[in-house]
Queue: 2 jobs
Job 1
Amino acid sequence: MQVKITIGIISFMLTMMIFSFVALREPARLARYTAAVTGRTIENGGLLFKNNCVSCHGTYGEAQKGCSFVNEEGVETGLCRGLALNNPALLCGDYSTRMDAMNTALSKEAFIRSTIAAGRGQVMPMWSSEFGGPLLDHEIDQLTAFVLNWEPSEAACEEYFASLIIIDWAVEYPSVADLSSAVLASSEGELEPGDPERGQQVFAVTGGCQACHGDPQGDASTAAVGPWQGNIAEEGATKIEGYTAADYLYESILNPNAYIAEECPTGPCAAGVMPQNFATALNDQQMADLLAYLLGDNTFESTANIRFLEE
Amino acid sequence: MATFVDKVREMGPRRALISAVDETVERLTIGMNIGDIRSALRGDEPRRPNPRLRPHADGFWLHIRPSFYHTEVTHIYPTFRMGWLSTFMFIWETITGIFLMVFYTPSPQAAYSNIWNILSNVPLGQLMRNLHRFGAEVMVLVVALHMLRTYVTGSYKKPRQFTWATGIVLLVLTLLLSFSGYLLPWDQLAYWALTVFLSGAEAAPAPAAVNANVLLLLQGAPSLGAGGLLRWYLFHVLLLPLLLGIFFFVHYYKVVLYNISLPPGREEIGEDTAKRVPKSERVYFIPDILTSELMWTGLTTLFLVAGSVWFYNAPLENQANPLVTPLHVVAPWYLAWSQGWLKLADKTIVVGFIPVLMIMFTLFPYWEWETPSRRYADRRIGLSVAMFFIVFMFISNWMGSPEYLVNSSAEQEVTQEILPQEGHSELLSVPYDELHNGVYRLEEHDGELHVSVELEDSSISEEEAIGPHLSHAFHALEEAIYLHSCNATEESSFFDTCEVTTEGGNTTYSNFFFKGAMTNPVVELHIQQYQANMKKLSLHFATTDPETGEPVLEIEDAVGTKFRHIDSNYEED
């Protein structure tokens, strides 16, 4: 019996030693598992992204620029219109440029989460099962964590912010004629004459115009929310008397509500649908490039004197 | 009766205090004062009347324990202490279960993150979860072994038929308890195991309306969701433990009534002498059995704690998703036999057969043709049947595993081994630092499978690229490729020669292990830096049709992809 008592006591003491061994290591283990929760959430988000999002947003979140869906017979079935996600415009700063452009009051995480869950415009579908989509709540969380994990380095963000030329348009903004190549080429300013190639980037990626207005180089059916812009060089001149196409386009970007187009892909166009902050979201150079891209020419004719913000 | 103050006056404060403590101890132990306890621990003879019997007669806790045993049943043989161990495990599960209950909410929104909270935020939470889950597996095993022991020693025979019958009920309740706990983490493992189980309930041989209503009762809604989780939680923490408690007391009472049966050779055939123990062969519960049980409590606790810390880790897969069925849905090991049967026979027959089997188990001790002898030599048929049944169950369990009769393709099976949808693999548990970006190509040269490496970072040599863990993972990958591939060329090869079968114009290449194997595959593992702190692992295969020479699988297409975050910590799982 003494032997049994001894064995019992020894095993009890050993058990207590193991408990203390575990307890001493517990804070470090808890920290590792807390990090693991985040890590695995991001991993799962990566798989969801790979399975659902890459066809529009690109394998590396760089956005498919002007790509098209092609079926097995090589026939084009649609266009990719995703925005770049692995992009400083979305990810740099607590309140990023993209959020500013969308005029959102949400936190960045909530902004991304709600965009995935409830979609945006008619191009980004609603993914949450709450709205009839295929993903459950926890999967939306995983995707959000994954997108945020593309966080650019501080240096990259600084470089990005430095590249933004922020102009106070309310105080000083050029007229259409000031952006014309004829003026820019002869002046010694920082701006270069409008470049259609860079303009395409502004339209498709930086400004995000293509998400609603479709691909100007494609056909009119690519536009999902706003009017198609492929024929704006001709159409623009017919909208307001005394306005050239450049005047009309320029004013409509700066102050979308100044003139409401009649026909939108979803029916009659409505005021307040298009973001009204492009005056601050785009700099002069981007504006010149954008106009050059849409008008097919960087010598802008102007007859009107646009002063929208003073009204 | 003299008050304490009177006593102090009479014998002084010190002796009065000792006498008061003594009295209290005697009341608490129901009859044993400090002197009696000390004498019991010294191993002295008890005084008369024996105070060590009073806790059995008058106390609550010991009235369901016999006050003495025959010395022959107190050794390891014939009981192997399996009955006691089953009780111990039940108490163990109750204690660890209550701890976990504090941190758990039975709702699909909360349950899964609750488990992660237990793992990442509750001090000793992981240990408690491991103790509970490991304990559950041990308990199933112990209860099953207890039944086996009872059968082998013939202890179910008259007069203990009813003890046996309650034992079968307890076995079934143990299985249900373990299985109902399976659902609670609300992960893919749990969700799909229960879905399979419920689809079985739906196929029971009863009118469709009955089945539909039973299913509705079991999951609370037309599909498994919040209602089902709540119900299975209540089964797990309330209904099943309550039922188990009731049958446990009946079972124990029968042991007090009939005592533990002696080893079969110790008594005349047809006699039961367990209660007629001569004084010289008695071993009293207090102190001998009690000491022994306390020792076993210490040893078993040590075993379970050490096992849970170093050898066992409770699995946790991804959160349950009714829209995504994992590749291999497996029942827990103690129910895998039923999954094996389902692969062979009609669902309704299998589901109908299981209750028949259970009723047969419960009632067979009452059958007339049973020989009254408990001796092994007289029960050759019965013991042989038991052996066959055990072998049959092992084979059925193996048939329940994905190794038997699975239908997915060879490259999917290999991917499942290395980059599984759920759970862990050798490759996933390679530490993040050991994964160097590049392409690792497995190709056959001269009858061997070689790994050639093309790294993005040329400053790392090929030897450095494959560290100890990654090398381990490649061995697993090579084994998986070997098992799922065959050689369709004329030359000798690392792979076994293909067995070619043609059926309806389709040619199938097989090896001994797998039907529809890949022919002489080339396999690539791509490791790519995907985000700053996350790598992408993908598995690529290239095979060609041996007849036409046309490619079947192309190396550009990834068959399986997984991401590996720097913090995901699979090493520790």
Job 2
Amino acid sequence: MAPPTVVKVVDLALETIARYDRADLTSRLRQTRTRLLDGRVRVLVIGEFKQGKSQLVNALVNASVCPVDDDIATSVPTVVRHGEKPKAALVRVSDSDGTTADLDDAALERRTERVEVPIEKLVDHVSEAGNPGNREKVTWAEVEVPRALLAGGLELVDTPGVGGLSSVHGSTTMATLPSADAVLLVSDASQEYTGPELEFLRQAGRVCPNVACVLTKTDLYPEWRRIAELDRKHLAAAGIEAELIAVSSMLRWHAIQKKDRALNVESGFPNLIRYLRDRVSGRADEIMRRSASHDVLSVTEQLGSSLRTEQIAQQNPERIQDLIKELQEAQARANALKERSARWQQTLNDGVADLNADIDYDLRDRMREIARRAEEEIDIGGDPNKMWDQFSAWVEQEAAAAASSTFVWATQRARFLATQVADHFAADGNKVLPALRTDPAGLMNVVDGVDITESEKWGPGEKVLTGLRGGYIGVLMFGLLGTFIGMSIINPFSVVAGLVLGGKAISDEKKRQASKRQNEAKMATRRYIDDVTFQVSKDARDMLRRVQRGLRDHFTGEAEEMNQSLRESLQSAEKSMKTSTSDRERRLSEIKAELERLAALEKRVRTLLSAPPPEAVA
Amino acid sequence: MSSAPNLSAAVRGVLRRAVETFRDEPETEQWLRTHLERLDEPLRVAIAGKVKAGKSTLLNALVGEQIAPTDAGECTRVVTWYRDGYSPKITLYSRDGVPTTVPVKRADGALEIDLQGNRAPDLERLVIDWPSQHLRVTTLIDTPGIASTSAETSQRTVSFLTPEDDAPAEADAVIYLMRHLHAADAQFLESFRDQGVARAASVNTIAVLSRADEVGAGRLDALISARFIARRYQAHPTLRGLCQNVVAVAGLLGQTGRTLRRSEFLALVELARAPRDELDALLLSADRLCNAETAMAPTIVDAVPAEARRSLLARFGLFGIRLSTTLIRQGIDTPGALAEELVRRSGLAELREVLETQFTERRDLLKARSGLLALERVLRRDTEVDTRALEAEVERILASAHEFVELRTLTALRSGSVPIRADDGVELERLLGGTGDSAAVRLGLDGDADADKLRQATLETLVRWQRRAESPLAGRAETEVYRIAVRSCEGLLDALGQ
């Protein structure tokens, strides 16, 4: 949730424009308001097995919401967010036809089943001990606790570390990165970063706005400072920009129980909380601020220009005919902007088509490589029956890694495409409105309104994608995991009493059987890889389709608004032809007052935009 | 077991014949000769595992001296052999086999190995000669960590233990350390397993759940917790077929227990004597213990200077200090008693027992296996030399040597591919030498059972399994297993009769 000032400004804007009878603009601002209130900031807590993720989350929120045990592993992702009363629920999203990607939010809601469970019993459903291999098919668990840290919309996601970052689980967790606002890589202070951990950080840095490294268990390891040093060197060497924060969940718990401030500082948690508040929440707030400001400015923009047009008409009645002609031309241009042939639409459609083809090719390429290596392995490995488990696990892992790489890359490119489309729309949008600016300080400048490019990463395209994150991507987040856990290479070999009993150990008969088994193994592998390729490319295509639809609807909406504004300008211009002089005077002073009101609102928004983020309380 | 010497003799014989046969190919001949010599050398046990799993510490604990260097950052980068020698010596071997002797220096106990400006990748191995009881029986090989940040470093271990071109591994057996079961661990164990002869290398791998004190976040019951976990892993389907035992070991505790110094004991006594709440506050974290200010713990800061505390931490770990002070408070009052208790609790004793039964007692078998693997490789190549007689001999040994049959059966039993009832399975595994090679262990009797008792038990067992083998209800696969059990009993009787 954005800081209250932003919401107030939006409310003020809604009030101000109420009189104008522009249902379209009002509804747009209402949506902005909803987004502000619902805005979530998602922080993924990721790490290898047994590095202290769950302990960390528990210590952050001061509640035992995630299961911790010396032996237990978390098998289901758990989302922790704010709620008035503590409660927990298991969420199952059924996907009868294998994918949830092309559903709109409403359909998604229908497929989602939410079952409340008592918080104490949560461990029975989300840990390996209570729910081994996630046989209960829980998609994710939700926990709500009343905590100040989470009150601003921050949500922490404890992810399964089973099998490690290089396993199937790990790869699919990586695919959830694009949906996160921040990622915390959790690694304990007993050793420096491993290869898989650095690789993960590299990937994360590409798609996540905030990446931080949390070094845990500093209470136990005297050499933790050295490890931190070594880790920082590794990060620098790999060109990864991430903050490193050292903590001890154990000390934090002690501090909470004894209400000992000094101990709390020792635990390092204040640094982590500051990071979450300032960097993560702060940045998200920033984005929401800009986004909301953009919306309000864009709205006042349009209203302003209508009014100004009328003003000009009233002030210069002799020019009205010319004005009307200009407006009509502008309207034609605005219409063109809505058409399929508009440049931004073409960019969008071509871009998506290209992206589809590229993703398809990329995926197939990766999978083909895996298939080739798999067959090689089978050829040199001898009798596949003996190493089947290891082999099939390897193939599944490689496939998952390839799929998540493709997804991460696809997301990056989709974002880039969105910015391109936004640019083209803005550039063309500029030319729509006639150069009627008699007010140089005027805020009619569409460029300003659409192009707030102070932050490189944020643009209207980004805003659209941020909006898309919530519903669909929340589900996709764990959907890929479901795909892979549900799909595994079918073992073509039934259990064989494989006693090699004396005699001719490697006889011709055995050789023939071995090569028959090799063929079976190859076929089974090929089938699996084909299935995976099919499923993943379908998911990717669905994701793109949603992006396309989202962008198209958004910009078409803006074009329509422009259109509407022009229509009104036209109407008022025509009307003004018929007004009497006294009415004209009255109308002009009305317009002046309204313009002042709008200007005041815009000033508020501008102040909001340039205001530095509020100082966070430590 | 009686046929082991026969097996050794047989393998020795065939290798000698092979050396003769290949006398016209000097390279091959030399290679075979090396393997022939290897039969008489001590057993080679490699210690492998991921980075910072605690390999070097465990090696020190086994040898009883702090020789292998250990460090917070990644440490071992070159495969390092530790073998028995009259006097300490360190030799570097470069990639092209050229040896260089390096002066032996110890810093703070541990050896300081000066690579003489060589980079780790340029060295093929380090060989350290060290006079030690333990090394007389076993040569220990310390390896660089798997899944190191430097893939190259890990690759060296992988290549060492599982050479690509089907060459036999340099090690006869492996102690694999892991801190918790991880996909990469299982993968690695699997690849070490697929090594030709008998395809039953589960018998030459022991898994260790290392740094067991950290498993429980340093809580006092950490080791108990770790033992439960180790037991669980032992029954885990992934591990069952790959290694036989999983032992939880707190290497640091073991190492320090075996090398405890009087000064350390005295410092611990001081800590134990301090007021309880002071000590507890200090033991909350490593930082506190080392850097505590006088205000927090006046008695302790006075009695035990920071330097001493820091070195205690490095030697015992936080858990070790918590445990030691508790033990002292409970009444342990001599360094000897503390050392003994620490070693016992660390799991080191259990590990040594397992090493004894799994590796040392099976030495001949493991050596014979390595020798045959080497020979197999040579025979598989294309060569002009007529190797038919040799091949026949190797086949004969493989097929008939009961030890290998037992190995294969053990693997089959453990991987669950033979439908045998669980309690039958436990007894059969034991009888076939799964938990130890001696007659007493195989029969499930005490170690001090006399020959008569053993003979009696063997006969009973034999008759019992014979009856099962003849039962019409048993399936083909089970019958085979019963017959093998009978044969094992016959072998025992042979040995006891002598």
